[in-house]
Write a structure and sequence with these properties.
Length: about 80
């Protein structure tokens, strides 16, 4: 799964709007939508804020692992259901 799909799925699973997440990242809803569409690359600080918002590991957001938990993980066997 690519990171754009993962970010969109995390937002949808959390019930957040693009406007809400944009506010968390200090950008407009339009800019956030462009991030999700891949028109603009997510800045590193935005990815860090997303990891904190969703309480997941950066590697999970980037699609490098299926382990959702934040590093260091208290439960290394906690694997995403998706």
């Amino acid at each position: 799964m690519d990171y754009l799909t993962r970010v969109r799925n995390l937002r949808n699973d959390s019930g957040y709007s693009q406007e809400y997440v944009g506010n968390v990242l200090h950008v407009s809803q339009r800019t956030y939508a462009d991030y999700e569409l891949g028109k603009i690359k997510f800045p590193l600080d935005a990815m860090i804020r997303l990891a904190k918002l969703y309480d997941v590991d950066m590697n999970y957001i980037c699609g490098l692992t299926e382990v959702r938990c934040e590093y260091p993980c208290d439960n290394p066997c906690q694997v995403s259901k998706k």
